[in-house]
Amino acid sequence: MIDDKEYPRLTKEICDEYRKRAGELFGTNCADTGSRRLLRKELQNKYGILEMEALDILSGHIRGEVVEKYDMLRGYVDKIIIDTQDKGFEKDFIEWIQEREKKRIGDYEIIDE
């Protein structure tokens, strides 16, 4: 099973909290700059969601859809881990997922200027 401490679960309440924090930022619109950009990166990195999903959550456009998507994916991964534990594949599978995540983040990281 995926460890909620290492990989926290995104919830509708968390999305609402980030939306509230985005609304409290002084002098920001929906542009991904300054403190709003930092907030988007925090949300994106902490919960492992896509940049566009984080932007949409901060703007209030979506919330439930993203939560449901990652709950469903987490369920699939949990099932694969449970199914492979008896076969000794869990460690290899987790290492493979972590390596893919490193590559994904590295390929799409936007450098601040």
Protein described:
By secondary structure, the protein is mainly alpha-helical. The chain has one domain. 68% of the residues lie in helices and 0% in strands. It contains five helices and no strands. The chain has helices spanning 12-24, 34-47, 51-59, 64-85, 90-108. Helix 2 crosses helix 3 (51-59). The chain is elongated and about 55 Å long. The N and C termini lie far apart (39 Å). The model has no long low-confidence stretch (mean pLDDT 76).
Order of helices and strands: HHHHH
SS-based class: mainly alpha
Number of domains: 1
Question: Between the first and last Cα atoms, what is the distance in angstroms?
Answer: 39 Å
Mean pLDDT over all positions = 76
| Largest sheet, strands/sense/barrel | none
Beta percentage is under 5%
Number of helices, where a helix is a run of at least 4 consecutive DSSP H or I residues: 5
Task: List key phrases describing it.
mainly alpha, 5 helices
